[in-house]
Amino acid sequence: MIPAERLRTAYRTARAALLAERVPEGHWVGELSTSALSTATAVMALHLVNPFTHRELIDAGRKWLAAHQNADGGWGDTVKSFSNISTTMLCRAAFKLAGEKEYPETVQRVEEYLTRNAGALPTARAAAIRARYGKDHTFSVPILMTCAVAKLVAWDEVPRLPFELACLPQSWYRFAKMPVVSYALPALIAIGQCIHHHRRSQNPIRNTIRRLARGLSLKVLRRIQPSSGGYLEATPLTSFVVMALSSIRRRRAAAEQQVIDEGVRFLVNSARPDGSWPIDTNLATWVTTLSVNALVSAGDLDALDTKEHILAWLLKQQYKERHPYTGADPGGWAWTDLPGGVPDCDDTPGAMLAIEALAPPTGLRSPPTTPAGGALNAGFLWTRNLQNGDEGFPTFCRGWGYLPFDRSGCDLTAHALRAWGRTPKDLGSSGAEVASGMRYLAREQRPDGSWLPLWFGNQHAPDDINPVYGTARVLAAYRDLDLKDAPECRRGIEFLLSVQNADGGWGGAKGCPSSVEETALAVEVLLDLANGDAAQKGVAWLTEAVESDRFRDASPIGFYFAKLWYFEKLYPIIFTVAALGRAVKITSPAPAAGSA
Fold first, then answer.
1. Is 173 helix (H, G, I), strand (E, B) or coil?
2. Beta bridge partners of 456
3. How far is CA 96 from CA 44, 103, 155, 195, in A?
4. What is the DSSP letter of 446?
5. How far apart are the C-alpha atoms of 23 and 411, rounded to whole Å?
6. What is the band of 253 on the pLDDT scale with cuts at 50, 70, 90?
7. From the centroid of its chain, how far is CA 376?
8. pTM above 0.85, yes or no
9. Number of C-beta neighbours around residue 544 at 10 A
10. Phi, psi (5° rounding) for residue 204?
11. Mean of all residue pLDDT scores within the chain
């Protein structure tokens, strides 16, 4: 075991680093990784709108891309990501469209990469993109559309998108078998119209329907555009919309021009000083609730001197009206405090847990007419109404089970159940409702004892899956619901123990390099569920990471839509605080960790 004073010193160092990351308002904002994919799409969108007005940003973006090309000639989603065919094709398209003469070596290297990994012919490269995503057109069609606009592939290679479906009543969307996930509605409309313009159907009836649906669907697109101009606050999605509409040379209706203008405003405002763009603007709500809940896990919430400010801020972030994008009922929270966020079933439980910890006890014992009690009650009702027929919880919309990122997820379900279990009984769920979610988790446990997450991965693992993250998050629910002796819990513990690396840390799966994030997640739950040599080796690994300052080294473990990788500056710091704080709490019962 690590000596107690050394452990406390490491914890205090990590805690100080986390507290120092707060903004003046008292909460956290974090910093998302820059993205080659975002940068490439933004460069092309601005070029198509006006290459002269936006020349400075376009040139800076191309320069950044050339400087961050991987050694193999390709690009990954982040500067720490392996090259992949999708991002590499988008970067190739950016140079083709916005100018490649100044970068002959960059172009030669990317062509060599594409030839090695997909073939020399445009048809082979298009096929490689389609193969990567299968039936899910959320990302494959935007990439192929972009390549077609840049004349890297023929329009015949781009599958059509039925944008006319956006004209249906919102409540019908889940029955329409959309070829894109629920949150890609802007892409469905804009890219669908772009493809239809460049490649009409041979069916005259379908052409007539789409001609009639053009104006109405554009009004939908404008209606769901947030005041920031950025759909989901995401550079790629907004860039695809702007690019698609700008590539159509026609007299534009007012709604269409407004979508383009507002999207351009968002892209210009989102550019970073080094010429790059991030994958999304920020995860302020998410990293704030993660930070609060990490200090709760450490038994050290008193170290937070901005509790009242954070509580007021979190209560303000709850959606009070039906969301225009997904049609979500009031009561949920999104990942960001910016207008492009959408309430979801990871951020909502996280906010509920944080509010339960931050609010005065008298407020929680009162009827749900108090601000905190009312917020928790609304959050509980929101999550309960989201539960799918399979008894699990999806991200955004109930009943969208057709495509991968709309299905129920183990990490989401476990998070919702933890929030339900911690909420006072007069505001929360019944035992039967919790039991239904636990049945889902039991069914989803894999033969090796692991659970898979929906929104996190590991690029070193087979198929990019991250069973360590998923299992740790599910085991936290078994811990918090006092189900430590359940057979599923014991099998999950055995899985985590079986994939620990020889150095004492964990990666995303067996044989993956140890990372701060995954080691901390595993350690935090094992300290309560199996506090033996394995957990203590993990504590030692994290302690040494703090002492060497490696605990700030973020790994690309986050997925955005369609497996678009990101890393977040605060993740390793937050998770380290939770794990080492838990270790201090368990091994040094008094005085409290905050006064150690």
1. helix
2. 558
3. 10, 10, 16, 20
4. -
5. 28
6. confident
7. 23
8. yes
9. 17
10. -65, -30
11. 91
